[in-house]
Amino acid sequence: MKNLTFFLGKIRPQIFLALCVLGAGMILGIQHDLNEIAVGCIAGIIALAKDVLQSDAGNGNGDGGTG
User: Is 34 a domain residue?
Assistant: First the structure.
């Protein structure tokens, strides 16, 4: 139970909202055959995930773990 509390404490609402918006845009792009929109949303999700992983690997201040 302690691990679940630790995990839930790390969830950032603005990142969750961004993933939901990008996911919805991607689904709408796929449904309406707008490939450019769908690919852009997928790229946004990948870039956001990369940024989150880099910030979690560092010391929390977004400088990549230096200092």
Answer: yes
Round to whole Å and give the CA distance between 3 and 16. Answer: 20
Q: What is the pLDDT of residues 39-50, one digit of tens each?
A: 999 999 999 988
pLDDT of residue 67: 47
- Measured from the Cβ of residue 22, the count of other Cβ atoms closer than 10 Å reads 19
In a domain, 59, yes or no: no
Render the burial of 31-45: b for 16+ CB within 10 Å, e for the rest: eeeeeeebeebbebb
Residue 45 belongs to some domain of the structure: yes
Residue 4 lies in a domain: no
pTM of the entire predicted model: 0.67
